[in-house]
């Protein structure tokens, strides 16, 4: 359910996307708000400017939250973003513990508007393999964390 307050902050994220375009960046913007609607941080896409494929605003804000917020505070936040987060950003959002995501355009809508946005081929993957060898550092890490 999206409230009137959500719509206000979502419009601000869309404004960040529009501002990104004027700066020569890709048209994506996001902000992170606390439970009371206070904006904690905001970002826009700087993939081209930074020559960094990970410079998505959602990922930047998830990383910021993981560094700057305790888990309880992060769980009370909402990420407002102009487009639905991609898989990379979605993983970071989960791991950073953000509480909620509100987006304007779905991935499907984005691809309808800009077909090249969905032109990412999936490389072939092979595995799992070498289980007995690969489990050793994982188990060692678990034992070290337990002590």
UniProtKB/TrEMBL annotation:
Residues 4-121 form the CMP/dCMP-type deaminase domain. Pfam families: dCMP_cyt_deam_1. Transmembrane segments: none annotated. InterPro entries: CMP_dCMP_dom, Cytidine_deaminase-like. PROSITE patterns: CYT_DCMP_DEAMINASES_2. Gene3D superfamilies: Cytidine Deaminase, domain 2. This is Nucleoside deaminase. It comes from Kitasatospora paranensis.
